[in-house]
Amino acid sequence: MTDSIVENLKIILQRIENACLKSHRNPKEVRLLLATKTVNAENIKIAIHAGQNLIAENKVQEVKDKYESLQSLAHESHFIGHLQSNKIKDLLKYNISCLQSLDRLELAQKLHQRLLFENKTLDVLIQVNTSEEKSKFGVAPENAIDLIQQVSQLETLQIKGLMTIGLFSAETKKVRKCFQHLKKIQQDVIALNLPNVEMKELSMGMSGDLETAIEEGATIIRVGTAIFGQRIYPDSYYWNETKN
Ligand SMILES: *Cc1c(COP(=O)(O)O)cnc(C)c1O
Q: DSSP code of 139?
């Protein structure tokens, strides 16, 4: 297992570098995030020892289960899953530095209340449903700016950018459209010059579409399968509201 994770990481880093070369970007502008859902702590440790420092989970339970085993290793943790309001208090116990999946005002308000109480702040990305599939989470693109304006008034939440999951399709053109749409929203928000809003981060691109995402401006790519292998659960288990 060690060999294959280390080997897979090399391949991913090479893919990132090639995509950056192709689009005349500096590879240092693109951060690799390891999507570690279903991956056990031992295998995550292998990746951290191999030099990776950013991981993210989709479920609070998994954050909790792996927290102790990983605590002594230097790394940063983001959260990329659908967050239920009743899990906020729990999640905030585990040193999450960025919630990438903020997609509704009700969640933002509850987070804000809890963060005020704990005297903390939290970096967030606004998750946008650029593929407009009903099964995916994220604010509808046409409502993204409204949500950003509302969240920007909650001073404990620091908006750093946007996140999206592209369409699952073999047609690169359609996938690329999703990433271009996210970039367009980023540019529109920048033009509004909102106080308390940064738009530096574009978290987009996964195992199958990271090259396209990098070409369209991704600053964070989120990779699971291509590093840790296939998961036993279908993605709908993590992404589809009805299965949660
Ligand atoms: C699982 C997951 C990823 C990684 O997907 P892979 O196809 O395994 O690389 C990226 N983003 C989110 C939100 C995920 O849930």
A: B
Task: For residue 228, give the ligand 1 atom closest to its CA.
Answer: 8
**Is the residue at 235 inside a domain?**
no
Q: How far is the CA of 94 from the centre of ligand 1 (A)?
A: 21
Question: Is 98 within a domain?
Answer: yes
Ligand 1 centroid vs 33 CA: distance in angstroms?
Answer: 10
Between the alpha carbon of residue 86 and those of residues 60, 91, 92, the distances in Å are 11, 10, 12
CATH number at residue 148: 3.20.20.10
Task: Give the tens place of pLDDT for each residue, 135-163.
Answer: 779 999 999 999 999 999 999 999 999 99
In terms of pTM, does the model score above 0.90? yes
In a domain, 35, yes or no: yes
Residue 108 β-bridge partners = none
- Write the pLDDT tens digit of every residue in 163-176: 999 999 999 999 99
Atom of ligand 1 nearest to the CA of 226: 9
Q: What is the DSSP letter of 128?
A: B
- Domain boundaries, position 117: 2-79+89-225
